[in-house]
Amino acid sequence: MSRVFSGIQPTGEPHIGNYFGAMRNYVRLGEQFGKNSLYCVVDLHAITNPNAFDPATLAEKTYEMALANFAIGLDPSQVIFFVQSHVPEHHELNWIFTSITPVGELERMTQYKDKAGQFESIPSGLLMYPALMAADILLYKADTVPVGEDQDQHLELTREIARKFNHHFGQTFPEPKSVHDPNALRIPGVDGNGKMGKSKGQGSTIGILEPLDAIWQKLRVAPTDPARVRRTDPGNPDVCLIFDYHKLFSDLDTIQLVDRECRTAGIGCVDCKKKLMEGVTEHLTPIQQRAEELRTDPDYVKDALRQGAQEARAIARPVIEEVREKVGFLKL
Ligand code: AQP
Q: What ipTM was predicted for this assembly?
């Protein structure tokens, strides 16, 4: 039987990159795999990036991330949804994995190289991040991992760690594979500055719970095809992030219409953005309404997380017992 695992960092408001790239797949796979699908707010990962971590807001961001996942339709009574730091077995497996993972492999990770460049003094947790991610997945012997394309390199390393552990200590772990939404491989930030990412700040993101008028203000000034200087110039949708967003939010007729009309200068960028906003409103309004409903019950999220941590530990403990024995720790 397959098991699904994925994690999301409480480093800021969940955005449409997280939603289309990963979270929507959580719901789909959750319906298919039920309690064999585990989703986790990875707060231990979040503290590895000093730019995105503030102890004064970590708990609130963790709570909000859980709430957002429930608002998109993930049902905590159908799946296992929990917070990483509530299941200490993640630390233990992480430590064992760090002892079989060469530093060179970790230094080679693109995400590490991108992030490490921001710091004069690099936290070692940032380097160890992929070993902890491998521990997150393999602690549940998960083989299916719904993530954005940006996580593929980490998944490759997870498979390598599983192979290494199995080789040294005997067959224990599966070699997990990532699952992508082909329409949402790597969603660009609304500032036009690379991949949309929470830790890049609000200028990069369109939050799924962000007020619609604030979203419009961002779309209104978002860059489009730089070669289209005047309204009468034909544009190229293939280099326009607004067109990328249309592919996520608009129906096929609208996508084809803006594609055609942009190329012939039949539609201006402002009208194209207004059409996009219609799709955004239609998609996000029910999610935002559900989030508001959830906020009226002060216990819902915390009760769900308490239950989720218990369910996750029930799977994790026997795996850790097996690992301890295979590694050769003294048993009392
Ligand atoms: N832009 C994206 N397009 C497609 N998928 C994405 N994911 C993240 N951004 C995009 C996927 O969302 C899941 C959660 O990943 P995360 O918590 O690491 O998200 P993040 O927004 O990238 O958070 P960071 O690390 O705080 O931001 P940056 O990138 O600024 O450092 C994952 O499955 C991820 O693939």
A: 0.95
| Ligand 1: nearest atom to the Cα of 6 | 33
- HSE-up of residue 278 (Cα within 13 Å, Cβ side): 9
Which CATH number characterizes residue 172's domain? Answer: 3.40.50.620
What tokens does 289 get? 């309404």
CA 140 to chain centre: 18
Our count of domains for the chain comes to 2
Distance 22 CA to ligand 1 centre (A): 9
pTM: 0.95
Binding residues for L-tryptophan: 136
With b for 16 or more beta-carbon neighbours within 10 A and e for fewer, the 171-189 pattern comes to eebbebebebbeebeebbb
Residue 319: inside a domain, yes or no? yes
% residues pLDDT > 90 (the chain): 91
Beta bridge partners of 178: 145
In the residue annotation, 35 being an active-site residue is answered as no
Same domain, 277 and 323: no
